[in-house]
């Protein structure tokens, strides 16, 4: 599973179009990926690169500029290769579509990029090729400092923030309703307090008016 999204709003831009038959619960992990994009677009994580544990897999993502590149791999797949794979995608995606990223208005506007994703993925599938062994031995590209977290922990941050937001909105709404009810009660209290006086004054004025008319 490989997905690319705009980091500022989580809009999916491209995706590796595998049929998912070789992966159990493919749709479930795609939904997790979209939720990750949503959370990342809210600026909840400072890390520009992270690995996230989910079931028997790991999400790896990197954010460069305005774009988040994400892939899902088996836990046994070398993290170093996963991030170099994402780096290859980033270089080509930026070269081919960099000027159109901000103006993209619909999901998967760059779905044709799938052809490059599939071609690059094939190069990284077999970790035993001389090419990939050389990349694993490349000391200039280190990933030891990349944080690894659990998906429930990561997604839970977004859920808690949404709950706080909902509670805040509900509290604001309740406060507004309470204020309106308080105004009504004050109005009713004033009416009860001054209505008898107003009635008496009205009757006196009417009597004076009638008396003047008679005399």
Automatic annotation (TrEMBL):
<dbReference type="GO" id="GO:0006890">
    <property type="term" value="P:retrograde vesicle-mediated transport, Golgi to endoplasmic reticulum"/>
</dbReference>
<dbReference type="Pfam" id="PF13774">
    <property type="entry name" value="Longin"/>
</dbReference>
<feature type="domain" description="Longin">
    <location>
        <begin position="3"/>
        <end position="117"/>
    </location>
</feature>
<protein>
    <submittedName>
        <fullName>25.3 kDa vesicle transport protein</fullName>
    </submittedName>
</protein>
<dbReference type="GO" id="GO:0000139">
    <property type="term" value="C:Golgi membrane"/>
</dbReference>
<dbReference type="GO" id="GO:0015031">
    <property type="term" value="P:protein transport"/>
</dbReference>
<feature type="domain" description="V-SNARE coiled-coil homology">
    <location>
        <begin position="132"/>
        <end position="192"/>
    </location>
</feature>
<dbReference type="GO" id="GO:0005484">
    <property type="term" value="F:SNAP receptor activity"/>
</dbReference>
<dbReference type="GO" id="GO:0005789">
    <property type="term" value="C:endoplasmic reticulum membrane"/>
</dbReference>
<keyword id="KW-0472">Membrane</keyword>
<dbReference type="InterPro" id="IPR042855">
    <property type="entry name" value="V_SNARE_CC"/>
</dbReference>
<comment type="similarity">
    <text>Belongs to the synaptobrevin family.</text>
</comment>
<keyword id="KW-1133">Transmembrane helix</keyword>
<keyword id="KW-0813">Transport</keyword>
<feature type="transmembrane region" description="Helical">
    <location>
        <begin position="194"/>
        <end position="210"/>
    </location>
</feature>
<keyword id="KW-0175">Coiled coil</keyword>
<dbReference type="Pfam" id="PF00957">
    <property type="entry name" value="Synaptobrevin"/>
</dbReference>
<keyword id="KW-0333">Golgi apparatus</keyword>
<keyword id="KW-0256">Endoplasmic reticulum</keyword>
<dbReference type="InterPro" id="IPR044565">
    <property type="entry name" value="Sec22"/>
</dbReference>
<dbReference type="InterPro" id="IPR010908">
    <property type="entry name" value="Longin_dom"/>
</dbReference>
<dbReference type="InterPro" id="IPR011012">
    <property type="entry name" value="Longin-like_dom_sf"/>
</dbReference>
<keyword id="KW-0653">Protein transport</keyword>
<dbReference type="GO" id="GO:0006888">
    <property type="term" value="P:endoplasmic reticulum to Golgi vesicle-mediated transport"/>
</dbReference>
<keyword id="KW-0812">Transmembrane</keyword>
């Amino acid at each position: 599973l490989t997905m690319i999204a705009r980091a500022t709003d989580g809009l999916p831009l491209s995706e590796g179009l595998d049929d998912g038959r070789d992966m159990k619960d493919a749709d479930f992990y795609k939904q997790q990926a979209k939720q990750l994009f949503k959370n990342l677009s809210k600026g909840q994580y400072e890390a520009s690169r992270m690995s996230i544990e989910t079931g028997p897999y790991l999400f790896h993502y990197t954010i460069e500029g305005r774009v988040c590149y994400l892939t899902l791999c088996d836990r046994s797949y070398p993290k170093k290769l996963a991030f170099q794979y994402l780096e290859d995608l980033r270089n080509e995606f930026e070269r081919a579509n960099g000027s159109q990223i901000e103006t993209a208005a619909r999901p998967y506007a760059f779905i044709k990029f799938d052809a490059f994703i599939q071609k690059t993925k094939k190069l990284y599938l077999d970790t035993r090729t001389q090419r990939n062994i050389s990349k694993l031995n490349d000391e200039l590209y280190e990933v030891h400092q990349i944080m690894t977290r659990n998906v429930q922990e990561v997604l839970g941050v977004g859920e808690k923030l949404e709950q706080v937001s909902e509670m805040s909105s509900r509290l604001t709404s309740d406060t507004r309703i309470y204020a309106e009810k308080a105004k009504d009660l004050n109005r009713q209290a004033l009416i009860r307090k001054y209505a008898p006086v107003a009635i008496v004054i009205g009757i006196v004025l009417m009597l004076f008016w009638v008396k003047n008319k008679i005399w």
